[in-house]
Amino acid sequence: MDWPERLVNEAKKRIEPYDVEGFVLGKGDHRGRVMIVGEAPGENEAVKGEPFIGRAGDELDKQLDYLGLSRQDVYITSVVRSRPYKWVNTNKKGSGGKRKANRKPNQKEIYAHAKLLDYQIEQMKPEVIIALGGVAYERLTGDKGKISDVIGEAIRTRIQREEGGGYGETEEEYTVVPLYHPAAIFYNPKIKEDIYHSLDRLKDYLEREEE
Questions:
Q1: Cα–Cα distance, 180 to 197 (Å, whole number)
Q2: Which of 60, 64, 143, 180 could disulfide-pair with 69, CB 3.0 to 4.6 Å?
Q3: What sign does the dihedral 41-76-133-14 (CA atoms) show?
C-alpha cells in the first residue's frame, strides 16, 4: 500500500508524547477481500516492523489456516502502529530492575493514529474487516459493549473515522466481524471453544459471500 508521506509523518508526530516505541504500518494483500485489525504492535513487532509475529502471530496463523486463508490472502494492520509500554519490575540480570511490558493503548494513542486506519480502509475497501479484540472493535464501531456478546457475528455497519477532533461515521457500510485477540487464548484457555465457534461462523459467512 502506498502511503502519503504527510499522513505518516503527522501520525508519528501525534504519537510522540506517549510511552510508545516502533512503528508498524501493516502488511499483506491490500487488494484482497479481508482486512484484519489488531490492537497495537508488541515488542517483537516493534523491533522487526511486522504485524503479528511471535506467539500471537503463530496463533493467528493457525486461525487463518482454519479459515482456509493465509497471510498472503489478507491485509493485517492495527489500531495503533506503535507499541504502548509500561515499566514494570523484573529480576532479570542486567536489566536494572525494570523492563518494558506491553499495555493496552489509551484513547489518545488510538486517536493519534486514527487517520492511518481510515486511509487504509478507504484505499482497500475490504469486503470484511476482522476486528481482533475489544479495542479494535470499539475503534471501528464505537460499541463499548462486551465483545463476547457479538463474537463471530458479521455486522453490517457504518464505521468510525477521524473527524474534527473526534470521530464521525463513514457514508459507506462495512461488514465487521469481531473475534477474540489471538493472545487471549494464552491468558484464558477456557475460551478456546468459543474462539473456534466464532471462527466457524466467520468461515460460513466467507464461503456464502464467495458463492
A1: 11
A2: 64
A3: positive
Q: What is the pLDDT of residues 68-101, one digit of tens each?
A: 999 999 999 999 999 999 999 988 887 778 999 9
Domain total in the chain: 1
Range of the domain at 100: 5-209
Q: Can you give the CATH number for the domain in which 73 is found?
A: 3.40.470.10
What does R_g of the chain's alpha carbons equal in angstroms?
17
Q: Which three cell numbers mark 153?
A: 457475528
For residue 1 the three cell numbers come to 500500500
For residue 155, how far is the Cα from the chain centroid? Answer: 17
CB 18 within 8 A of CB 81: no
Reported as a single tens digit per residue, the pLDDT across 32-61 is 999 999 999 999 999 999 999 989 999 999
Query: Whole-prediction pTM value?
Result: 0.96
- 114/106 Cα distance (integer angstroms): 12
Is 81:205 a contact under the CB 8 Å cutoff?
A: no
Q: CA 102 to CA 202: how far, in whole Å? A: 29
Total length of the chain = 211
DSSP 8-state symbol, 146: -
Integer angstrom CA distances of residue 56 from 5, 28, 31: 30, 17, 24
